[in-house]
UniProtKB/TrEMBL annotation:
Keyword Transport: no
Pfam families: Sulfatase
Pathway assigned in UniProt: Cell wall biogenesis; lipoteichoic acid biosynthesis
Keyword set, alphabetical order: Cell membrane, Membrane, Transferase, Transmembrane, Transmembrane helix
SUPFAM superfamilies xrefs: Alkaline phosphatase-like
Organism encoding this protein: Dendrosporobacter quercicolus
Name this protein carries in UniProt: Phosphoglycerol transferase MdoB
PANTHER family tied to this protein: LIPOTEICHOIC ACID SYNTHASE (PTHR47371), PHOSPHOGLYCEROL TRANSFERASE I (PTHR47371:SF3)
Ranges for domain Sulfatase N-terminal: 357-588
GO molecular function, one term: transferase activity
Amino acid sequence: MPPIAKAVKGSLILPFNWEHFYENVQQDLKLLLFLVGVICLFRAVFILVMHHYLRELTVFSDILTACYYGLRISLKSAGLLALLSFFLCLGWQLAVKRSPNRLRLMLGTFYVGLLSLLFYARMPYYEQFHMGFNQLIFNTFQEDGYALFYTLLEQYNLLPRLVLAGLTAWLLRQALRGWLFYRIIPWPRFSRKYQNIAVRAAFLLLVYQLTVFIRFGGSMTYADNIDWENSGITGDQLLNEAVLDDLQALYRAYELHERMLSSTGLAVDPARMAGYGRHLSGKQTTTEDLDEYLKKSARGAIVKQPAHIFLIIAESYANWPLLPQYADLNIANGLKAIIARQDAAYVRAMLPNGMSTISGVLGITTGFTDANLYLNCIPEGYREQFPTAIAPQLKRLGYQPRFWYAGPSSWERVKDFVLAQGFEEFYGRGDYPSAAGNVWGSDDKYLFDAVLAGTKDQPPTFNVILTVSNHAPYTVDLAAEGFEPEKIRAGLPDKLKANQEFIKQLGHFWYADQMLAQFVARARSRYPDSLFLIVGDHADRLNIETSPGLYERYGIPLVVCGPGISKAVFSEKTAGSHINIAPTLIELVAPAGFSYYSVGASLTGGNPVGINYGFWITGEYIGRDENGPVEPIHGDRTAGPAPGWTQLEQEIDCLRAVSWWRMKNGGTLNSR
């Protein structure tokens, strides 16, 4: 029986020597090759199963290219796991003088179990976010645990996926066991000492070169290194994401999370901050009070002071259903009718503050752009009312600020946070009757009924309303609400006409749109001199196209309607994001000379660019960053030249740096 087999049986105590070091290297090299094979197999299956997300122009050579670069980057992932195994097994053998092969098998079992679990989680994650794992997973720990588990259970088939992951891991473990316990190639022996020394030196050099090759992802130099930052080598979103295996995707999520927490990439120091402040304000004075740079003076009310203001943050209300090419879907007719009114204005070039609902809420309520500082979860969000916060500024204009949410008050600490930021009243699901809903909250019609029932003639109120019905799990009784699937099916491409689940999701968009429009009509009937602002919280959840353009994927609408509003309120080239809502609202209703604070500018002044966590938008173009794609937002319509990156970068850096500093360090620019 070979020595390695005897060791596995535990019948032999082995002192450590050169042969055992060689065996450890050989065994961990076998583990490395096995893990690389598993990861590449999962990558191929992922592409095969998700092939409907491939763009039409993608060819087989693109798939081969993605697999090649995926193999290279996965050498890093598998190499890290194998290296961990090597040191643990080597330490074990040195400490207890026994073969470490059982330990290596245990580690390998854990590895394939983890990879299997991530593989089965990746597909629904991609369907939801059009990405592999990203920084949004860090926000998962702040979610309502029960609601999240129920959604995974009902909407994403959690139990079957866990069973499949377990079965896959068991099969891989059996294969790994046979592979690890297969014969060991013996170490060559030579009669002369110098020959043994030379062969050992050559072996160590080979191990070193192999380590470098793995470290740089199939290259011997850093110049040819491949990592998550340069892995987008095809023109297809799915293939670019497939290049990153699940471990690399998790590493990307961690890196992005850490970078934004520490404001990596921005020179955030007092001297530069003063320059950022001067750029945003246009003031040439120098002060150590950051808030002075954020102070603005209203130019004079555009509309007569409304009796009530209703700001509706509509769950997953993307802009693409409002586009002409999707008119036959009939899922956004309610908001379209509002936009068509003469007393309504519509901003087409609008971005959400972040990828999730809470990011949108934070951007609207605080006025700060997303710097990945979840203020609802850290002390800085409760130590003061930020001067840019929307509620206390509307309070100074005579409005009682109230927050209405369809879900539970415990979600994301939303109740505690909005009250800390100046809202005087908060109403959640437990505060009004809700005969139907899901784990995330009440059906929208019950929320809107509660808002109307709770709105009185005096005093004037400012109401932020956050809906949830257009969110998985999709549980609204659509038939009872009058939904007609055939009206939607007629506007679908042939490949989706029979997809009942997709039609159900579109039906929930239709329901949310109908409830919103009915609320606006009822509220206007009761309070005709009220002002309404309607904005999506985020997009990137549902699209007809499997590979939509950036505008269709990320754009959200902003609609303002009420007496005194006209189409001319916003110019055709106006662009913005959630941080522009507060100054826009103030400029609409505040008297001339009213002092207020904001990071973003009012859209009534024709703001030319909007930014968020990773994108920028103008009235004609949308893009990612300096080297990212730039796309026109009006399709075939003739557009002017795209904005220069230097100008965009200055604006982006200023908005992010000022937001980050004010949230984290307060209003002073003194060195810390």
